[in-house]
Structure formats: structure tokens, C-alpha cells
Write a structure and sequence with these properties.
The chain is α+β, with helices and mostly antiparallel strands. The protein has one domain. The protein contains five helices and 16 strands. The strands form two sheets. Strands 1, 2, 3, 6, 7, 8, 9, 10, 11, 12 and 13 form an eleven-stranded antiparallel sheet that branches.
Length: 307
């Protein structure tokens, strides 16, 4: 999504009827009278687990150690094709994260699949929104030996830092620039990618306008230091999206918005497994038709298995 100065514009499980999800108290008492107390407690726990909202019950599928994928329905009820969040969770101790920029590699934007094939990446997601030249990131962006944009964007207070310059530092870390000075981060990491925050360290939702709705790609980090690549293909209000992210069992401690509309892409391939999710509708008049194919992206975050 080219930036114009304003804020950035599957599989679904069947739900059982709500009336079948809980047991009446009288029934539970009768059941408990026929079985030992421990059996009743176990049954009650199973019932409670069954009654959890479907959007909180995504199951992680392991592709390989340190690389997992899950899908979460964002709404507990509604039409069959409910908005869905697709998440790839990656351990930075097992995989390396790399910033790739078209301006550094021949000046040609590539689709996520093309980036993956050319640079042997197991996963690819947008690095950021970009300017009208189709190459330059909206916010600060630099990597080892290459400077894409030297200027810090006002109001963009999320910073993904990669390629630590000293031992003992986390291999990938998502910083909040209201808490950690940029100069301090720049002295410790060689690759920096600046974007919008989704919420504060105190977990306050920073997106307020319900008219800000579109497909969205996001990058987060959980309390265990794992990086989460996330995308929602369906049009979904951003304030509601952030609220859902904070409710889902993802353990997010920080997250940033990296792209919206049809440009939003999450692609992964590992052996016979392939994941390809693209944004559908955008916020611009010319983006009112549903998109089904990958767009060429100038700047991406790529994931490589470590030896």
C-alpha cells in the first residue's frame, strides 16, 4: 500500500449451537452423584474447554521444530466465511530473519513467491508500506551495507531490530520507540525496520477509527521471544483486529502493522507444505475488486533456517 500521509488504509470450523455447549446445573449435580468427585471435576474441565470461543482455539501445526502455523476465526459467529487470522510462529534461535529490498537487489520488486525462490526463504511477509517511488519504505529502514530510508517517520513507534552487533543480544527484537531510544537500538542492531505500533506496552489499543478496515499483514513478538507473522485476508476493522490480537492466546508483547489491502502477503514453503495468503480489498477506489494473486513487493522480511 503506497503511503499518502494518512493512517494506513480458508479454513473455518463449524460451531455447535450455544445451547449445546453447557450443561444445566441440575444435570451436573445428578452426574456428580453417580461418580467420584475427581471424575466430576475432570468432566467439568472438559465442558469448560469445549465452551471456549472458537476464535481462541486455533491449533498449531508444526512444520518443523521452531516453525508453526495456526488459524484463528476472528468472530465466534456469523456467516460461514468468517474473518480469519493466519499466524506463522517462528523461533529466532532456529531461524534467521533477513530484510530484502528491491533497490538493493536489481531495483525490481518481486512477489513473495519470487523472493522466496530466489533467496531460498522458507517464509516471506511485507516489511513495511512504501512511498510513491515503489521502492522506499515509509519509515526508517536499513540493513547491513544498505540504507533504504534514513529518516524516522513521525508517529511510527514500532521498530523491528535484526542482526545484533554484540553477543548476548536477542537475534530479533520488536522495540517500542516510546520506551527505548532509537540511538540505543541502532548501536546494538544492524538491521532496523520502522512501522506503526498496534498497541502500547501496557496493551492499550492504538487504533480507534472503525472506518480503518482492510486486509492486513502484521508482525509481532510473544513473551518467549518468538516472532509471529500474521495476516487477515478479509476486510476487518483495525481497532477490532487489535482487540482480537490481545484476546487470542498468542502471548503478544508487541506487534506492528506492515501492510494493508491487496499488497498484504504472507507466503511460506517448506518441502511439500505451502502457505499463500494475500490481501483481498484495499482502501483505495481502484482496489474495490477482490484480489486473488500476489502483488510485487519492494521490501520484505524473509526467514531462513539456521544451519
Amino acid at each position: 500500500m503506497m503511503f499518502d500521509g494518512s493512517l494506513p488504509p480458508n479454513l473455518h470450523e463449524k460451531l455447535r449451537p450455544a445451547s449445546t455447549r453447557t450443561l444445566k446445573f441440575e444435570q451436573a449435580v445428578r452426574i456428580g452423584s453417580k461418580f467420584p468427585p475427581w471424575a466430576f471435576a475432570c468432566a467439568l474441565l472438559l465442558v469448560l474447554a469445549w465452551a471456549l470461543p472458537s476464535w481462541a482455539s486455533g491449533l498449531w501445526q508444526s512444520w518443523r521444530p521452531g516453525l508453526e502455523v495456526a488459524r484463528f476465526a476472528l468472530e465466534d459467529s456469523g456467516p460461514a466465511l468468517r474473518p480469519e487470522l493466519v499466524v506463522m510462529r517462528i523461533d529466532p534461535e532456529r531461524f534467521a530473519f533477513r530484510l530484502l529490498c528491491a533497490a538493493e537487489h536489481g531495483g525490481k520488486a518481486r512477489t513473495a513467491r519470487e523472493w522466496s525462490r530466489e533467496f531460498r526463504l522458507v517464509a516471506v511477509i511485507n516489511a513495511s508500506m512504501y512511498q510513491k517511488d515503489g521502492l522506499t519504505s515509509v519509515g526508517l529502514m536499513l540493513t547491513k551495507g544498505y540504507l533504504n530510508n534514513p529518516r524516522r517517520a513521525k508517529g511510527h513507534n514500532a521498530l523491528l531490530a535484526l542482526d545484533p552487533l554484540a553477543s548476548g543480544l536477542a537475534p530479533a527484537r520488536l522495540f517500542d520507540l516510546t520506551r527505548t531510544p532509537l540511538a540505543e537500538i541502532r548501536a546494538r542492531y544492524a538491521t532496523l525496520i520502522q512501522n506503526y505500533r498496534l498497541f502500547t506496552p501496557a496493551r492499550k489499543n492504538l487504533w480507534k477509527r472503525d472506518d480503518q478496515k482492510w486486509s492486513s499483514a502484521m508482525v509481532g513478538q510473544d513473551g518467549e521471544g518468538r516472532i509471529l507473522l500474521m495476516i487477515c485476508r478479509e476486510v476487518y476493522p483495525m481497532p477490532k483486529m487489535v482487540a482480537r490480537l490481545l484476546e487470542l492466546p498468542l502471548g503478544l508483547r508487541a506487534a506492528m502493522y506492515v501492510e494493508g489491502g491487496p499488497e498484504a502477503t504472507l507466503y511460506a514453503r517448506d518441502g511439500e507444505r505451502e502457505l499463500d495468503v494475500v490481501g483481498s480489498f484495499g482502501s483505495k477506489p481502484e482496489q474495490t475488486q477482490a484480489n486473488t494473486k500476489q502483488w510485487a513487493l519492494p521490501n520484505v522480511i524473509g526467514v531462513l533456517p539456521l544451519p
